[in-house]
Amino acid sequence: MIDHHIKIAQELAVASKQVAATVSLLDEGATVPFISRYRKELTGSLDEVQITSIRDRIQQLRDLDKRREAILKSMTDMGKLTPELQQQINEAETMVNLEDIYLPYRPKRTTRATKAREKGLQPLADLIFTQNKVDLSAEAEKYLDAEKGVNSAEEALAGARDIIAETISENAEIRAQLRDMFINKGTFQSKVAPGKEEAGIKYKDYFDWTEPVKTAPSHRILAMRRGEKEEILYLDILPPEDDAIALLDRTFVTSNNSTSNQIRLAIADGYKRLLKPSMETEARLLTKKKADEEAIRVFAENARQLLLAAPLGQKRVMAIDPGFRTGCKVVCLDEQGKLLEYTAIFPHTGAGQAREAEKTVKHLFETYKIEAIAIGNGTAGRETETFIRNLQLPGVTIVMVNESGASIYSASEVAREEFPDKDVTVRGAVSIGRRLMDPLAELVKIDPKSIGVGQYQHDVDQNKLQTSLDDTVISCVNAVGVELNTASKQVLAYVSGLGPQLAQNIVDYRNQNGAFKRREQLKKVPRLGDKAFEQAAGFLRIQGSDNPLEASGVHPERYSLVEQIAKDSNATIRDLMTNDKLRKSIPLQKYTSDKVGLPTLNDIMAELAKPGRDPREQFEAFSFTEGVNEIKDLKVGMKLPGIVTNITAFGAFVDIGVHQDGLVHLSQITNRFIKDPNEVLKVHQHVEVTVTEVDASRKRISLSMKGEEKERSNNNPVRKPQPSASGNQTPNRNKREPETDMQSKLAALKAKFK
Questions:
Q1: How far is Cα 448 from Cα 300, in angstroms, rounded to an integer?
Q2: CB 290 within 8 Å of CB 460
Q3: Residue 556 — φ and ψ, nearest 5°?
Q4: Residue 465 in contact with residue 296, Cβ under 8 Å?
Q5: Crossing angle of the two packed helices 153-169 and 258-270, in degrees rounded to 10
Q6: Phi/psi of residue 629, each to 5°?
Q7: In angstroms, rounded to a whole number, what is the distance separating the alpha carbons of residues 639 and 711?
Q8: What does the pLDDT look like over 606-654, one tens digit per residue?
Q9: How far is Cα 569 from Cα 185, in angstroms, rounded to an integer?
Q10: What is the pLDDT of residues 22-47, one digit of tens each?
Q11: Contact 211, 187 (CB under 8 A)
Q12: Strand, helix or coil for residue 97
């Protein structure tokens, strides 16, 4: 284990004691957010990215150790383990290396080589492998045996070649070199399957496509694989065959005689029949793994940005799930998102119905003192927006809301439990309204794969995707903090140390006993023990408590420390929170101990300055260009406002209000060179784009942001956070919080493991 700590420390460029402390905390059940926030003294202030990397890497190394032990036991039981093999197995650093070493000894199905060995041809193969000059025909005739099925010298030589071919194909060094050759010199080739041209029009770009394996980007690999799965494309990896054969010849052919000729024949057969298919399969798996990792990284980063989108906050909201013939479902919600009333209006089915719809909306607006109207961006969304704006309701904010996943939520068990007597359309409208008020709180109720910010999410490794998304949601929820007395059980489930069952127990306790007054009361919740309390308490908030620390990110384990600081300063805790000069005068070094260092003390001071601060941006209303509602309304050269909905490795997708997102290619995002769209953009960012191409038949819109960069910079100056009316801070809307870079930083660190 110590060796593992040193290895990880070297890979991450940190101290081994930091790794050891982190692994120890993880093994004790501590979560990544808790460790990074409240155990900085132990870890040397490692951040979430580093801690997650340590967690994943130690698990990877432990899995490798388990497989190593299993292989050693298997080879010992077979009597095949030699000191040399044991050393090779112990020194293997990857699962691939380990399996290559084990391959010749692994129990396998019957092969041509095993049949040849059963016929007693192993000695003949060994003789040929020496490549000494011998009379091959005479030697081969020694192995003739009609009962064993060896009826001629040629049959004997063929069997020997089968043994040699398998031996060569199982050579660990050769497999490693060929694997590298297939990845670095191989070529992807995709072609359309005969007769599938029309059915596979979306794969038109890949009907006759060739690209080096080494440089093929994730999205193209996954697109070609999906086309192959749908039987639209034929996909192959064309290897550097001449180079591969030359490598095998150089390695195994050492003479120039009749035995050497047998080796050459065995090489040609073994490469075509064994090595080439095996290496192609491995190249497919390796490129798929790499493509998955990149797609998952991009998806998780998009999900993070969407989850951390600016919340409108506690406002009285009217939410509309639009529709034409079936009408628009309208709901009214109070400041906490509680459903007050619901109905249906038909503003698009005739003048009479439109007048009735107008009366209904105005009545609801006045009755519930509506402050904002959320309109889903699906079918009839733009038309409904126009209808609502034409009503000229005073002082109301009208916002188009991305409704991706709302239908998933409305049919889910969560929605049925919350609104058992309401139909799916009402539930969907409620979800649209709530995601305007607090995107994070609402979106955690939906499978992240359904919120519309990824590509090929159903094609990648689902277990790895789920782990990454769980990490992302947990990170976001704990970064923002959770109001203990109003949070749903779905949000509470993502709080450090809790989970679904404890979240349900908290809600049940809250319903039976009323609102929590102190965090300490959590210990009365059934099955919520000291460990869960330690992990969760700092991320939970209680507004309105008589102890102001309950609404902050200061952990209860440090309350006594804050109280001592206040006492020594002849002040109250509220004085510490409101008096900047007082806080700056505190000699923090005086309060350090073996458990509390300056990192924790600095965090406490920062939290006292901005208790319970929300790291998300300040909400800003947005509206699309009037009269541009469908793709047919677009003209090349149009400048339009839009919202970034999805970021990929090759560019960003932008909603411009025509029910079809346009693509801003990486080369069109900015006038300067960038490698990653995330350097400039983030999901839900408001941008201005220029239409450069419209292909209505394929529903493709090309956009550009070049030339807009200077204007964006001038229009969006960096602003310092300003206190809000609630006392919380309004975060800088242009400066990305450190958490939002987690996935990209994590990917970079993981690259060191390979």
A1: 9
A2: no
A3: -55, -30
A4: yes
A5: 60
A6: -115, -20
A7: 13
A8: 999 988 788 888 888 888 888 898 899 999 999 999 999 888 888 999 9
A9: 69
A10: 999 999 999 999 999 999 999 999 99
A11: yes
A12: helix
3-state secondary structure of 743: helix
Give me the mean pLDDT over the 107-130 stretch.
Answer: 93
Largest CA distance in the chain: 106
In one letter, which amino acid is 502? L
Q: Among positive and negative, which fits the CA dihedral 524, 527, 530, 532?
A: negative
Which runs of consecutive H residues, i.e. helices, occur in 308-403? 351-367, 381-390
* Per-position b or e across 612-643, b if 16+ CB within 10 A of its CB: bbbbbbbbeeeebbeebbebeebeeebebbbb
One-letter amino acid of 694: V
At 717, is the secondary structure helix, strand, or coil?
coil
Handedness of CA 171, 172, 177, 182 (dihedral sign): positive
Among 10-19, 136-145, 719-728, the least confident range: 719-728
In the chain, what are the domains? 2-75 (1.10.10.650), 317-437 (3.30.420.140), 631-720 (2.40.50.140)
| Residue matched to tokens 């008020």 | 437
Can you give the C-alpha Rg of the chain in angstroms?
Answer: 32
Quick one: tokens of 610?
Answer: 């901005």
What would the pLDDT profile of 545-570 be if each residue is shown by its tens digit? Answer: 999 999 999 999 999 999 999 999 99
Question: 415-445: string of b/e by CB count within 10 Å (b at 16+)?
Answer: beebbeebebbbbbbbbbbbbbbbbbbbbbb
- Give the separation between CA 133 and CA 260, rounded to whole angstroms: 9
Q: Minimal CA–CA distance to 623: which of 385, 324, 348?
A: 385
| DSSP strand pairing (397-401 vs 482-483) | unpaired
Q: CB-side exposure of 111: number of CA atoms within 13 Å?
A: 20
Q: DSSP string covering 442-493, please?
A: HHTTS-GGGSS--SSTTTS-HHHHHHHHHHHHHHHHHHH-EETTT--HHHHT
pLDDT at 576 over 70: yes
Q: Which of 122, 108, 117 is nearest to 74 (CA)?
A: 108
pLDDT at 448 over 50: yes
Beta strands at 372-376 and 339-345: parallel, antiparallel or unpaired:
unpaired
- Sign, CA dihedral 409-415-416-420, equals negative
Q: 3-class DSSP state for residue 215?
A: coil
Mention every residue, 6+ apart, whose C-beta is less than 8 A from residue 161.
Answer: 125, 128, 262, 265, 266, 269
Distance CA 22, CA 14 (A): 12
Q: Are 260 and 127 in contact (CB under 8 A)?
A: no
The CA distances from residue 405 to 310, 452, 475, 536, in Å, are 18, 7, 21, 28
Asked if residues 144 and 152 have their Cβ atoms less than 8 Å apart, the reply is yes
For residue range 340-368, what is the model confidence (pLDDT) as tens digits? 999 999 999 999 999 999 999 999 999 99
Rounded Cα gap, residues 521 and 11, in angstroms: 43
Pairing verdict, β 317-321 and 372-376: parallel
Report yes or no: 643 and 622 within 8 Å, Cβ to Cβ.
Answer: yes
Q: Are 706 and 671 in contact (CB under 8 A)?
A: yes
Burial class (CB in 10 A: 0-12, 13-18, 19+), 327: buried
- Mean pLDDT, range 181-189, rounded to an integer: 94
Residue 145 to residue 528: CA distance in whole angstroms? 75
Q: Which residues contact 213 (CB under 8 A, 6 or more apart)?
A: 182, 183, 184, 185, 186, 187, 188, 237, 283, 287
- Average pLDDT on 220-237 reads 93
Pairing between strand 187-192 and 233-238? antiparallel
**588: pLDDT strictly greater than 80:** yes
Token couple for 385: 């927006």
